[in-house]
Amino acid sequence: MKFQDRINAVLHHANPDQVPFAPYIECFPSGEYERMLRNRGMGLVVRKPTVWAATPHVPVEKSLEGDLSVTVYHTPKGDVRAAYKQHAGRLYIDEAGICVEGLLKGLRDYEPIMYMIEDTEFHVDNSLYADTVRDLGADGLFTEYGCALTPYGHTRYIFGESSGFEKWIFEQADHPKEFARLFDAIIAREERRMQLIAESPAEYIRFGDIDGSWGPDIVRRYDLPFIKKWIPYLQSRGKICCVHAHAINLAFFKDLIGEMGFNVVEAFTPPPVGNLSIREARTAWGKDTIIWVNFPETVFYQGPLAAKKYTQELLESDPPGNRLVIGFTEMGLWGASDPETEQLFKEGILAIADAIDEAGKFPIQSRDQ
Amino acid sequence: MSDILIEIKNAIIDGQAAMVMEKVETALKQGLNPVDILNSGMVDAMSEVGQSFERGESFVPEMLLAARAMQSGLAILRPSLVKVDFKATGKVAICTVKGDLHDIGKNLVSMMLEGAGFEILDLGTDVAPEKIVAEVKEFSPDIVALSALLTTTMPNMKATIEALKAAGLRDKVKVIIGGAPVTEAYAHQIGADGFSPNAARAVIVAKDLIRKS
Question: Who is most buried in A91, A117, B49, B64, counting CB within 10 A?
Answer without folding.
Answer: B49
